[in-house]
Amino acid sequence: MTPDRRIPGDWFDQPVPGNVEIHDEAYVETAFSFLLYRSQLAAGVRIGRGASVYLGTMFDVGRQGRVSCGAFTLVNGARIVCDAEILIEDYVLISWNVFLMDTYRVPADPALRRRAVIAAASGEPRRVDGHVEARPIHIKRAAWIGFDACVLPGVTIGEGAIVGARSVVTEDVEPFTIVVGNPARMVRRIEPGETTP
């Protein structure tokens, strides 16, 4: 990154926000990934050593949101919606079109949701109100999330777990298991020795 916080060769000629920490040995393809970024925390996003964030990844982080991508993590075209915290540990693989969301941003109650839609249509600023709770997501070391998967608020994905393509994860995933489906269910455990050649 240049001294004025631009990414060399970036087609999107805007600086990376000042409260985004990117390790010198990390790779971020474009500052466009921060177009929807609004965090007011001292470090709203941290990208660790050797991590890679590729084109199509969007950090849609609210004012009190915090995202951490650990060392040697790869994020390829994911949408990260965060109003509390999304913690991604080291060596995690996140495939294209994955959706991580620690909040629904609209109330579950239909009457409250209707008011929010009317307010947005009338030109009032869209915002999370007190009726919507954000619940942190934690993706532990060496997990792999397949393409088009969706991880919902409050979920922890255990170390070494695999989430199959197009799965919707509504509950915690145990370490070293494979989950698939909508809603995602465990299909099997990863046995010792399967993780090494």
Multimerization state: single chain
CATH top level assignment? Mainly Beta
For the biggest β-sheet, the strand order reads 2-4-7-10-13-16-18-19
CATH fold label: UDP N-Acetylglucosamine Acyltransferase, domain 1
Provide a count of the helices: 1
> How does the overall form come out from the CA principal axes?
globular
Query: What's the CATH superfamily, by name?
Result: Hexapeptide repeat proteins
Total strand segments: 19
Major sheet: 8 strands, mixed
The CATH architecture classification is 3 Solenoid
Structure characteristics:
globular, 6-stranded parallel β-sheet, 8-stranded mixed β-sheet, 1 helix, 6% helix, 197 residues, UDP N-Acetylglucosamine Acyltransferase, domain 1, mainly beta
Short description:
With 197 residues, the protein is mainly β.
Descriptive overview:
This protein is mostly beta strands and 197 residues long. It has one domain: 3 Solenoid (UDP N-Acetylglucosamine Acyltransferase, domain 1), CATH 2.160.10. Helices cover 6% and strands 29% of the residues. Strands 2-4-7-10-13-16-18-19 form an 8-stranded mixed β-sheet, with no helix packed on it. A 6-stranded parallel β-sheet has the order 1-3-6-9-12-15, with no helix packed on it. A hairpin with a 4-residue loop joins strand 18 and strand 19 (185-189). The longest helix is centred in the middle third of the chain and has 12 residues, at 110-121. The chain is globular and about 50 Å long. The termini are far apart. The model has no long low-confidence stretch (mean pLDDT 91).
